[in-house]
Design brief:
heterodimer, A: Rossmann fold, six-stranded mixed sheet, two-stranded antiparallel sheet, 24 helices, 9 strands, B: alpha+beta, SH3 type barrels, six-stranded antiparallel sheet, 2 helices, 6 strands, 38% strand
Chain lengths: 569, 80
């Protein structure tokens, strides 16, 4: 099968064009380097089925970064290239185009973000550009699909005439010459978005703005999450699901294996969605009634910030802080994604340059960044005692994040590289692109997380029924009762965190702990070990040796922090 | 002439200057070159470094954030 490469600079809408060409939706965002894993799909050109590969965005073909190495490697056995170019930023983009032309592979140029270029008063003579490059050039708008059909129809089968060898300097001179021929700029004033863009990187205005954006995002996530729970999901469970479940329960023998597995234990003679702990009661309620609304609102807000282009600016403002932890500003991406789920957070460490940074970032995400599931349950169970208890958990985790980062930075050989990061212009994302991305992430949650929630509840019940739990609780009792001041059953909940952190918080909720005991156990739970999904992805990304190091740090630090909290509180 | 060259860090924010030379290793030079930052181009400093943080510059249609250490190696002169 023919292999077609989709290539271009970072942040030119390549992933959106990819999903237009193949129909497979891939994640895209308004920041450089979104495609951290290589995505491929199928497209039909001239009646022939081709494999389309979404190559990570590159500025050049010099193999200076991991993304460029991959791109150079893939070019060797490519049959054709679709070069996606940002029409609003032709100069930088054409540089890669000229470089690609020298490889003598059939090529077509998609002049993307064409609508924005027109709005910005950038006029490009497309015919002239075609002549200069001697390959077809098609204006496209990825997000609406304009020009995509033409792009497929005009894909050439023959390679362009061999371009002459050029040095890097020659290429920039050539780009300058072509620009003079094909592009004219209308003089115009700064737009409001550009003004806002400048304000948000200048320290004096940017830092207060960042505080405002982060606070507002946090409050919005809470508001939407709690709103969905209170007005949508709880009523559904109480008014619709409870009668069904009660009817089902009345037909089964209380205390039988099936009853315990599906319904769980009654609390004051009633099914309690948090404490009963059956598959159909607590299992479904945790998965859909408590965690789903928060995952939804988190990704809604994050997707909007991503596509708006805010995150690179946050990276600039936080660069100094991140350097203290052995990272640079761009590491805010894995950290923020980790608040949704640690797995994509750790995958996103691929945007960082070297192994050392990736080890530090992955360790920090898995120790000190609580995922949405854990946070949702924490608000659900600890929240009713008062927000100050929830704040204690967040505060402790933040201190742990700083301290462990500083320690790792001190003791791991090497230093943190300096930031070189493109700042994209702000763009108001169309509702559709945010919606598509949100839908894709929610589908991922339902497919990948919900089965684990139900599986976790099932395992808890089986172990309980078979009395294995009592045995394990006895064995671990000294650690939990003496060092952490928790009842021995809390230890089981923390062990269950290996399956799902949210289910584990649910188990803690059924134990009648004091607020302080809950603070200690939730903190230890968040820090101690990664859930099984995170565990697998850690092993893959930082290797088994890296995982063991991270694991040792987690166990030691969670014990120390748990003991410290036990003494302080 | 060399006496009139400044490091990009010493240029006030808002000023437009021309890049004269980039000191430092092949790696940094290569990465800057692939972004189009090279001797002879004009760059505008959008924001200054804060607490030894990065500097944001505008060049052509794009904006780039560069670590302070890199900016110390970018030598520039005033545009007349």
């Amino acid at each position: 099968m023919k292999r077609v490469l989709l290539m271009g600079n970072p942040n030119v809408g390549k992933s959106v064009v990819f999903s237009r060409l193949t129909g497979v939706h891939v994640t895209s965002a308004n920041y450089p380097g979104t495609t951290v894993e290589i995505t491929q799909g199928f497209m039909t050109v001239n009646g022939e089925r081709c494999l389309l590969i979404d190559v990570p965005g590159t500025y050049g073909l010099h193999a200076t970064s991991k993304a460029e190495q991959i791109a150079v490697e893939m070019l060797k056995d490519a049959d054709a290239v679709i070069n996606v170019v940002d029409a609003t930023n032709l100069e930088r983009n054409l540089h890669l185009t000229l470089h690609l032309l020298q490889h003598g592979i059939p090529m077509i140029v998609a002049l993307n973000i064409w609508d924005d270029a027109k709005h910005k008063g950038i006029h490009i003579d497309v015919e002239r550009l075609e002549k200069e490059l001697s390959v077809p050039v098609v204006p496209t708008v990825g997000i609406t699909g304009e020009g995509i059909k033409e792009l497929v129809e005009r894909s050439p089968a023959k390679p362009p005439a061999a371009a002459r060898e050029m040095t890097e300097e020659d290429r920039w001179t050539e780009v300058g010459r072509i620009l003079n021929e094909v592009q004219s700029l209308e003089h115009r004033h700064h737009t409001f978005l550009e003004f806002l863009g400048d304000l948000s990187v200048k320290p004096a205005t940017g830092l207060p703005l960042a505080a405002l954006v982060l606070t507002a995002s946090f409050m919005l996530i809470r508001l939407i999450g709690e709103g969905l729970i209170g007005y949508v999901f709880e009523p559904i469970f109480e008014n619709w699901w409870r009668p069904v479940l009660e009817a089902l329960a009345s037909r089964m023998e209380p205390g039988s294996l099936l009853y315990t597995l599906l319904i769980g234990e009654l609390v004051n003679g009633e099914i309690d969605f948090i404490q009963s702990f059956g598959l159909l009661s607590t299992g479904l309620f945790v998965g859909f009634g408590m965690v789903f609304p928060y995952v939804f609102s988190f990704y809604l807000v994050l997707s909007y910030l991503e596509d708006f282009g805010y995150l690179p600016r946050l990276a600039v403002l936080l660069d100094t802080l991140m350097h203290r932890l052995g990272l640079h500003g761009w590491a805010v991406i894995p950290m923020l994604l980790g608040f949704g789920c640690n797995v994509p957070g750790i995958l996103a460490t691929r945007v960082l340059e070297n192994r050392r940074e990736r080890l530090i970032a992955s360790t920090l995400v898995s120790i000190a960044v609580p995922c949405a599931g854990l946070q949702a349950m924490m608000w659900g169970i600890l929240g009713p005692f008062g927000a100050q208890y929830v704040a204690m958990v967040y505060g402790t985790l933040f201190v742990v994040w700083i301290v462990i980062g500083r320690i790792l930075n001190r003791f791991l050989a090497g230093g943190s590289p300096e930031l070189i990061l493109e700042i994209p212009p702000y763009r108001v994302p169309p509702f559709r692109t945010v919606g598509v991305k949100l839908w894709r992430r929610m589908r991922g949650y339902i497919k990948e997380a919900v089965p684990f929630v139900l599986g976790g509840v099932l395992v808890v019940n089986l172990l309980h029924f078979l009395k294995i739990f009592d045995f394990m609780a006895e064995a671990m009792a000294p650690v939990f009762t003496k060092l952490l001041g928790l009842p021995q059953e809390a230890g089981l909940a923390i062990l269950m965190g290996f399956f799902r952190k949210d289910v584990a918080v649910g188990m803690l909720g059924a134990l009648d702990l004091t607020p302080y005991q809950l603070v200690i156990s939730v903190t230890v739970l968040a820090m101690s070990f990664p859930c099984v999904a995170t565990f697998v992805v850690l092993a893959r990304e930082i290797g088994v040796a890296g995982l063991m190091k991270a694991f040792a740090i987690m166990l030691v630090s969670s014990l120390i922090v748990g003991m410290a909290l036990n003494i302080l509180l | 002439m060399t006496e009139q060259w400044l490091a990009l860090t010493d240029v006030p924010a808002g000023e437009t200057v021309r890049v004269c030379a980039i000191e430092g290793g092949q790696g940094v030079q290569g990465r800057l070159l692939s972004l189009g930052i090279r001797a002879g181009v004009n760059v505008t400093k959008v924001s200054d470094s804060f607490a030894r943080g990065p500097i944001v510059i505008r060049h052509g249609q794009m904006q780039t954030a560069l670590g302070r250490g890199i900016c110390q190696k970018i030598l520039v002169e005033a545009v007349r």
